[in-house]
Amino acid sequence: MPGENLTRDEARERAALLSVDGYDVSLDLRTAVGNEAGDGPRTFRSVTTIRFRSNEPGAATFADLIAPSVTSVSLNGRDLDPGQVFDGSRILLEDLAAENELVVDAQCAYSRTGEGLHRFVDPEDGEVYLYTQYEPADSRRVFANFEQPDLKCPFRFEVRAPEGWTVWSNGLGERTDGVWRFAETKPISTYITCVVAGPYHYVTDSYERTFEDGTRLEIPLGALCRKGLAPYFDSDDVFLVTKQGLDFFHDHFDHPYPFGKYDQAFVPEYNLGAMENPGLVTFREEFIFRGKVTRASYEGRANVILHEMAHMWFGDLVTMVWWDDLWLKESFADFMGTFANVGATRFTDAWITFANRRKAWAYRADQLPSTHPITADIRDLQDAKLNFDGITYAKGASVLKQLVAYVGQDAFLEGARRYFKRNAYRNTRLGDLLSVLEETSGRDMASWAGKWLQTAGVNSLTPQVLLDAEGRVDELAVLQEAPESHPELRPHRVAVGLYRRTGEGALERYARVEVDVDGPRTVVAELAGAEAPELVLVNDDDLTYCKIRFDDTSLATLREHLGAITDPLARALCWSALWNLTRDALLPAADFVDLVTRFARRESDIGVLQMLHAWANSALVNYAAPAWRPTGERLLAEVALRDLRAAEPGGEQQLAWARFLATVASGPDELSLLRGLLDGTEKVDGLEVDQELRWAFLEPLAAHGAADETVLAAELARDDTASGKRHQVRCLAARPSEAVKAQAWAQVVESDALSNALVEATIAGFAQPSQRELIAPYAPKYFAAIERVWRERSIQIGMDVVRGLFPSCPTEQGAQSTLDSADAWLAAHEDAAPALRRLVLEARDDLARALRAQSAGAAAQALAND
Questions:
Q1: 751 partner at 20 to 30 Å CA-CA among 218, 326, 671, 701?
Q2: E-assigned strands of 76-225?
Q3: Residues ≥6 apart with Cβ < 8 Å to 353
């Protein structure tokens, strides 16, 4: 529908015309339970009253609403004909007064895609659970509004719900006369209002803080999840991290938490990791762990809790004017999540995870043809939806880490404090933040921002070492390069570390200096005269955002002694650099796999180990020369079996290797072991095969024809839960059968019967890299279908289908044909939605990168064989 995709220009015009005083929103959710609706969508009644002013009496504007029908519209007491003013996504408002009251009574639809008001029926007990998710612009699916971030105002919600339910919203609520009424919010944007309703399991706690001036703050804390997950809900740990985070941010921000209570809801079928609704943060329920997980999973959850908490200040208290400055909240929250994790919780090594995992996301995004500056050009809401990406989050956070090194931590935090005090409950742009940072640091922030925030692309830093006649460093320089497409060379504050092996064989740092790298070549004068290094690590300690390269000596050292690096962050940075070399076709995928088989077992950081497992599998599937792939499959399966058996019984390393085995198992020995672990005829000392691990083992068995529908049905009977259903659907779609693939394709592409979670599970099962021949016929079907899917389905489902079903693992014979088909589609659909074109262009670029790496690997293998 044309009116759904609000443009930046329309938002600017409306913001210049209007100011909003407040909303009263009344929802009747009693229709959520009971018999299924007829042919149309299941709906609920939504009555919205908006009080707003216009600085041009007589002018016209529009309100946003996406709903099946509107019962009535009243503007300033004047009844409007819904059939004349409502087109399905907008309500035309003409002849505005200076002060206005709009009342809209509508029938809005429950969602099955995670957008708007999502309705979930738990297959375990038949209970219904509701929650809202809006970012960037889906509150208009629940109530009429002006859907843009800069029209902030207070909200009052009231909700009628089925008997026995509890309802939560942003403010404190109570139930009287069958109606839940909630305290008026502070001025906030539409996209962070929230309602959660249902028979959720709810746990409470409280946080107290007395400040230096004697004032006392008490925050009621709550945590909730489905009743079926209550036995697994470790709410004590959630509350521990929550309290640690609140202490940390109060210490550093000098602005008390401003939104009253602090509830955290773990909800089913959630599209995101979490959402920062003030007073009621929502998370995907997979953060409640049904089985044994490693420390990395708990660290990741803590990071997300703290990320969302940082948003209470960066994003909720102070909000960007439009989505161009999305980084003002997401980059800061991503940085602050790790900053607080290290500074306040037990996860003191979280910067290692950031360097290894988050930055990998940023490096990939920044080398796609769709890369963009951190302060992006967001023309409309579809642009905004796609810009919740690795640039906005992880690159933005990396650049903020560089900014802290550039201006100093004290100046950075003082700038944040002034920013909050000056702009509380207001909207800001880039210049508002830069101005306070200039005050506190004395640095020229405009120049810094121009190079780091307003240009795209990633620089590469390479050491150049010249030795004198005595074998000492005569000159050490750092060379900076940029791709032709984004030639900007940036100023980098970096640490350069020199490493040598000790008598015990450990590879340790013996010299380190910090230097400002600027331009194509920077001499590090302080290192002249140092002993000759075996390894030079530019960007030691990970101060800047760049791709690390190595000189020949350093690379040779890593090939033989990578596992001997004693510092875990330095080791993680080297692994990340080697992965970038692999993706850039500068290191054959076979060499990267070889490094993993030799050195991964020595990795002490469990998060890095799990990242290495993911990279090794990706190297094999995407970047390895096709002729070498069977060898690589055997090598990875052998090392997974070896290190599973060698790992400490019952330890998290053992669990990580067991899960890795499930991703690489393909031969009879590995599949036989997995089957035996499931039926009890095999045992690995200390390995507990819980329900989640059982499903992980079943997927490769299903994908290789060793677990049929009967086996999967029996497993679902054993785990007849929402989580079990998702796992079963994925495994069913993974079976190696033409009929299975045809059914999965039809369920996702030709029908909208599946919920968002089951669409995701079906796609994951369908797209098995080991079944290249089987899924090859769907490449032309994909290009024939995606424009229709994008037009007919919600943007979330459209994104899932376009990304997930792109033929990214073609056969060797079909690779070029797939690339040509993508090019032909792009050429023939220049007028397609820009967001759709971006998704296809990104997937096409990933495939082209993979083919370049495969070609380079084949050439290297041929050279080695000569």
A1: 701
A2: 78-80, 90-93, 99-109, 116-121, 128-133, 155-160, 166-169, 173-176, 179-182, 195-198, 201-210, 216-225
A3: 296, 299, 300, 303, 338, 605, 607, 608
Nearest partner of 17 among 61, 50, 74, 51, judged by Cα: 61
Catalytic residue among 147, 269, 276, 308: 308
Rounded-to-integer distance, Cα 57 and Cα 53, Å: 9
Q: What is the pLDDT of residue 436?
A: 94
- What gap in Å lies between CA 315 and CA 246, rounded to an integer? 16
**CB 46, CB 25: distance < 8 Å:** yes
pLDDT in tens, 79-98: 999 999 999 999 999 999 99
Question: Is residue 2 predicted with pLDDT exceeding 50?
Answer: no
**What does the mean pLDDT of the chain come to?**
96
Listed in sequence order, the residues at least 6 apart from 828 whose beta carbon sits closer than 8 Å to its beta carbon are: none
Encoded tokens for 743: 């059914």
Helix (H, G, I), strand (E, B) or coil at 391: helix
- Output the pLDDT for position 3: 65
Listed in sequence order, the residues at least 6 apart from 520 whose beta carbon sits closer than 8 Å to its beta carbon are 479, 480, 481, 489
308 as an active site residue: the answer is yes
Q: Which amino acid is at 540?
A: D
Q: Please say if the pLDDT value at position 102 is more than 50.
A: yes
Residue 353's closest CA among 609, 22, 682, 111?
609
Radius of gyration of the chain (CA): 28
256 phi, psi to nearest 5 deg: -55, 145
Output the pLDDT for position 866: 72
Mean pLDDT, residues 533-559: 97
Mean pLDDT, rounded, for 142-153: 98
pLDDT band at 402 (very low <50, low <70, confident <90, very high): confident
Q: Are 148 and 11 in contact (CB under 8 A)?
A: yes
Contact 533, 467 (CB under 8 A): no
Is pLDDT above 70 for 36?
Answer: no
* DSSP-assigned beta bridge partners for residue 104: 48, 73
Measured distance between the N- and C-terminal CA atoms of the chain, rounded to whole angstroms = 61
How confident is the model over 343-359, as pLDDT tens digits? Answer: 999 999 999 999 999 99
Q: Look up residue 25 and give its two tokens.
A: 């929103």
What one-character-per-residue DSSP string does 439-460 give?
A: HHH-S-HHHHHHHHTS-----E
Q: Residue 38: what pLDDT? A: 60
Closest to 427 in 3D by CA, of 306, 324, 276, 280: 324
The pLDDT of residue 495 is above 50? yes
Task: Find the DSSP H helices in 326-429.
Answer: 327-344, 350-353, 359-366, 381-386, 396-407, 409-423
Report the Cα 362 to chain-centroid distance in Å.
11
The CA-CA-CA angle for residues 489, 394, 849, to 5°, reads: 70
Residue 15: both structure tokens together: 């913001």
Reduce the secondary structure of 813-833 to three states and give it as a string: CCHHHHHHHHHHHHHHCCCCC
Peptide bond into 136 cis (omega under 30): yes
- What lies within 8 Å, CB to CB, of 756 at 6+ separation is 112, 113, 114, 269, 271, 796, 797, 800
What is the rounded distance in angstroms from the CA atom of residue 339 to the CA atom of residue 54?
43
- Identify the CA nearest to 702 among candidates 665, 654, 744, 743: 665
Summarize pLDDT for 613-661 with one digit per residue, the tens.
Answer: 999 999 999 999 999 999 999 999 999 999 999 999 999 999 999 999 9
Q: How high is the pLDDT of residue 865? A: 79
The pair of three-digit structure tokens given for residue 610, joined into one six-digit string: 């799990």
- Cβ burial, residue 599 (10 Å; 0-12/13-18/19+): buried
Q: Please give the share of the chain, as a percent, with pLDDT higher than 90.
A: 93
Q: What is the dihedral sign for C-alpha 353, 354, 356, 361?
A: positive
